[in-house]
Amino acid sequence: MRRALKIIVALLSLGVVAAVAFVAFLPTERIAKIAGDQVKAATGRSLTLTGGLSPSFFPVLGVETGAVALGNAEWGEAPALIAASGVRIGIDLAPLIRGEIRIREVRLEDPVVSLEVNEAGEANWEFAGAEGGDGGGDGGGIQSLIVDELFIENGALTFVDRRGGARIELDRLNAEATLPGLDQPLAVTGSANWREKKITLDFGLSNPAALLRGEETALRLSLASDAGSASYDGKVTRPGPDGRPRAAGVFHLASKDPAAAFGWAAGAPAPDALEGLTDLNLDGDIVLTETAKAALTGAVTRGGKAATLSLAATGGADWAERRAFAVNLDAAVNDLFRFVYKGDVAADSGRFPVALNGAYDLTAAAPAAAAEWVSGAAPAPLADFAALTLKGAVSLSGSGLSFSAKGGGMRGDRHASVDLSMTGGADWPTTRAFALKADAALDGAATLVFAGDIAAPESGSPSVDGAVEFDSPDLRALARLAALPLPDNMPPDAFRTLSFKGDLSIPAAGGVRLKATALSLDALTLSGALGIAAGERLTLNGDLRAGDVDLTPYLGAADSAPPPAGASGWSRERIDLTALSTFDARIGVRVKSATLPQMKVGASQIEATVSDGRLDLQIEKLGLYGGGVTGSVTLDGARGNAFSAAFSASGVKLRPALRNLAGITSLEGLGAGGLNVSGAGETLDEIMRSLEGFGEMKLTDGALVGYNLAAMARNLGAGLIGGDGGAQKTDFSEISSVFTISGGVLRTTDFALLGPLIRVSGEGSVDLGAQTVDARLTPKAVATLKGQGGDREKSGLAFPLIVTGPWAALSIRPDLKTGLDLLLTDPSGAADAVKDLIQDGAAGTLGGAAKGALEALTAPKGQSKPPRQNGKKQGAKGDAKQDKPAPIVDPTRALNQLLKGVLKD
Fold first, then answer.
1. Are the C-beta atoms of residues 734 and 678 closer than 8 Å to each other?
2. Separation of alpha carbons 325 and 328, rounded Å
3. Helices 2-23 and 28-43 sit at what angle, rounded to 10 degrees?
4. Residue 550 pLDDT more than 70?
5. Separation CA 286–CA 675 (nearest Å)
6. How far, in Å, CA of 905 to CA of 765, rounded?
7. Residue 791 CB: number of other CB atoms within 10 A?
8. d(C-alpha 348, C-alpha 357), whole Å
């Protein structure tokens, strides 16, 4: 400062000398050389006058120049330190006689000032190497300097600091100054444009001469624009040998729109946190000596709520070099939050402009409202939080970030806690990538532990990759607190607990992938991989494995004694498949066994695909009651609940399968076959009544349970006969049929039952929708014990049966008329069939019945035995060919005898 004032004095003195010289009629070239020599001696820089000098006699004595330039430092970028298109200086001669310089007027036209600081910290306004050094003196023997008026017209100023890249450019600089004397107040007022905004300046220095002598003097500075205002009022002392400024005073900062002011001052968009803030007012005091101290208080408003601020900063002996301070910050909004920070704040040499290293304490009575005040938005997860407290440490710089937080709050009526730490490398400001460890808990509802990496880049999608453990002992409570939907009317034992342990990955492309080493829902335990992608539609993709699983809590448990089929028909509740339109999925599931309502399956492998409202089940393996099923099932909710299925089954134990699936208990054995069927409907009843398709079945080594056809033979006249569910049964070796399904009705024309000494053929229909049967079976007594794989067409004595009624209570009765018609049509054939039974060795009940039937078919009506001749039974071996009687039929007794034996055996 002292050297700069000496330069001003030298230049003005030269103006006076030039003016006097003109009066004395000295040549202008001589005057120009004298001026250049004097400036060179004072500054070490060259003074160039390209426009020459000319005298001014009226209205005051003075001098005018053309273009003038003062040279820049050798390392400077600008062509000149100061350049102007012209300078006018007017002096008062009378004070000059007394040794005083009284400048009536100084006017600088279009001045351009270029201030520069190089990488080594050297300033181009420091004139090292000038003659006379920087010793004492007051301006070359001039006792006093008075400047009545100083004008700067249309000036420009540029400041460049190559150490940090700072650059300030002012244009349209217009100023007016007065200096009654070096020991009198200097006053400057003016304006300039900076970043297209006009700034007004009001500057006052009480005693420039004292400042030149290194003494303390008063300084007043005020800057204002439509972005805000700043002022300082206090004492200053010229910098000492260390080059540090020295001051002590008070300051004030104010802005109606802090975000706009920051953006204007920084030349960059303001942080989002500043948006919406209004009415910033800060008052403080500052002391700069070997150390630095500053304190401020103030307030800023957002949404009608004012935050109070209190800040104290202290810098050590190296504060100027490090620009580092110990800071205590306390900010609060009544009824919302309070934030306290204690630690170091420094200007950082890295990519992040500020370095922090300290501890913080945050309390928020209403976290959502506090977050909205700070950022302008209330995050949904904070909506139900209250009484939040967090404490931790933060270390932030261009070389990395370290952050920790520990505390909690109330979530509804439960306490939530969190303990986390995260670190980021030097590139964290752009990548926003961190190593994260987190341990969170919601009392009685859930715990979550995560260790891994997270990233949230400015351009791109967030990503997560790490190990996670999650446990919810009260899943329903957690779902309520998180506003997540669970199924209505949930069974009491379903969706109670959930736990997961494994790897969590959220790729940058979006979605969530879970690779579970352990995954359990209630009593279900699974492992495998599950991917979840959340975009416009939820997408699931995974492969899961499980041991023995019980699904009855989620699908409804089976009664201990299921109602018989047909008791109430198929369900007429509307089937709602709209949920299939809300997500896409491909899930593969393998289980050791699964218990479902009224059935249990063994080792199974199924793949489910959901797309566009359609569910496709690919059954690669389904262990079903000792056997296996393969096939596919499709449910299309977007097309009227369209249903289709294609199955192939083998080795299925019929009685437990039919009992659990349809309430049918009258059939046992092993089942195999195939089915291809389709239908549609709003209810299960509608679907069953709409079925279309075809199929085949083959049942082996079984029995009709509850139906004893031999007992029926003893009751041919009793009419309607039904199974009683007891120990009665009719064994078979094989049952087969090929069938078609149309309109929900299954029809067959080639039903066949093969058993020892019996064949049954049949045809008819099963109404799947109405759960009723209307069929005709024709049992045939045959002379062979071979069942499975036997000859269906083997001749024998046949008698038809009619099977009708609902599945719950089937009725099987003989068709007496048709049976009698068959016997009367061919009595000889019936007799031959019975003889075949006897000749093939039929014994026991069947043998006796066959002989009784033969007598009824061949004896005269009313006679139970043939007449005897010579003590021998007529028709005995040896004379039957000579005395063969004509057949006389007693069909009713023949049928009773034959069915009693054949079908009982």
1. no
2. 10
3. 170
4. yes
5. 91
6. 29
7. 11
8. 12
**187 burial via Cβ count (<10 Å: 0-12, 13-18, 19+):** middle
Quote helix, strand, coil % in the chain, to nearest 5. Answer: 20, 50, 30
Q: Quickly list DSSP for 511-555.
A: -EEEEEEEEEETTEEEEEEEEEEESSSEEEEEEEEEEEEE-HHHH
Lowest mean pLDDT among 78-82, 569-573, 859-863: 859-863
Q: How far is the C-alpha of 776 from the C-alpha of 342, rounded, in Å?
A: 95
Query: What confidence score (pLDDT) does residue 530 get?
Result: 77
- Burial label for 562, CB within 10 Å (0-12, 13-18, 19+), is middle
Helices 891-902, 827-839: inter-axial angle, 10-degree rounding: 30
- The two structure tokens encoding residue 63: 């001098």
pLDDT at 795 over 60: no
Q: What is the DSSP string of 382-409?
A: GTTEEEEEEEEEEEEETTEEEEEEEEEE
3-state secondary structure of 122: coil
The amino acid occupying position 55 is: P
Backbone angles phi, psi at 184, to 5 degrees: -110, 165
Query: 0.90 cut: is pTM over it?
Result: no
Amino acid (one-letter) located at 678: S
3-state secondary structure of 852: helix
β-pair partners for 754: 734, 759
Q: What is the pLDDT of residues 439-456, one digit of tens each?
A: 999 998 899 999 999 988
DSSP 8-state secondary structure symbol assigned to residue 648: E
Cα radius of gyration (the chain): 54
Taking the C-alpha atoms of residue 707 and residue 755, their distance in angstroms, rounded to an integer, is 15
Question: Tokens standing for 230?
Answer: 């700043």
- Over the stretch 60-88, which tens digit does the pLDDT of each residue have? 566 778 888 888 888 988 999 889 998 88
Q: In angstroms, rounded to a whole number, what is the distance separating the alpha carbons of residues 609 and 604?
A: 16
The reply to whether omega before 891 is within 30° of 0 (cis) is: no
292 pLDDT band, cuts 50/70/90, is very high
Region 636-640: what's the mean pLDDT?
Answer: 83
